[in-house]
Design goal:
This protein is mostly helical and about 200 residues long. The chain has helices spanning about 20-45, 55-60, 65-80, 95-105, 105-120, 170-175, 175-185, 190-200; strands spanning about 125-130, 135-140, 155-165. Helix 1 packs antiparallel against helix 3 and helix 4 (about 95-105) crosses helix 5. The chain starts with 20 loop residues before the first helix and ends with a helix. Manganese (III) ion binds next to helix 1.
């Protein structure tokens, strides 16, 4: 039993003009494929072989190969599912919309705080919106770490995440990480994020 690179639910060019097709193709077929293959190699013959990815992530802190590639595998699966060519331009609705207003004041204020977390992540990493006992919160992690690893500062259930590695945006946006984040809001799949929020709220 090994991990497989998942197919995308949309074509590489489906998120144009916001995210470009060449970046999407390289990101999925090279970067994500690489993490997947290296994760399989890293767990082969260890006690974690055959475990779920969630169990692997919760146990990987002391093994750099499993941590980096297990995180890279899970983070990108989560990222592809978080986007859609038919994003709702009005943002989230229902209980998630209410929870965002409660935690951040407004959807615009939430976007501003999330962008700040993504912009100020030094080097490579991710910014996350998480749901926990105290409601919604924003955090960021370096490299391919994620909140499921529960390794400092970022431990609630992730419901949305953005990849701010340069490989996610440099071909189209150059050093303009902020322009990439602004464009990315146009492809967030709010229906999926609402489903994750509802599951995490139960
Ligand atoms: Mn990436």
């Amino acid at each position: 039993m090994t991990f497989q690179l998942p197919d995308l639910d949309y074509a590489y060019d489906a998120l144009e003009p916001h995210l470009d097709a060449l970046t999407m193709e390289i990101h999925h077929s090279k970067h994500h494929a690489g993490y997947t293959a290296k994760l399989n190699a890293a767990i082969s013959g260890t006690a974690l072989e055959g475990s779920s990815i969630e169990d692997i992530l919760s146990a990987c802190a002391d093994s750099p190969g499993i941590r980096n590639n297990g995180g890279g595998y899970w983070n990108h699966c989560f990222f592809w599912e978080s986007m859609s060519p038919s994003s709702s331009s009005t943002g989230p609705s229902g209980s998630l919309s209410e929870a965002i207003k409660s935690a951040f004041g407004s959807f615009e204020e939430f976007k501003s705080e999330f962008k700040k977390a993504a912009l100020t992540r030094f080097g490579s990493g991710w910014a996350w919106l998480c749901m926990g006992d105290n409601g919604l919160s924003i955090c960021s992690t370096p490299n391919q770490d994620n909140p499921l690893m529960n390794i400092g500062g970022c431990g609630d259930t992730p419901i949305l995440g953005i990849d701010v590695w340069e490989h996610a945006y440099y071909k189209k946006f150059g050093p303009g990480r902020g322009d990439y984040i602004d464009a990315w809001w146009n492809v967030v799949n709010w229906g999926v994020i609402e489903d994750r929020f509802n599951s995490a709220s139960q």
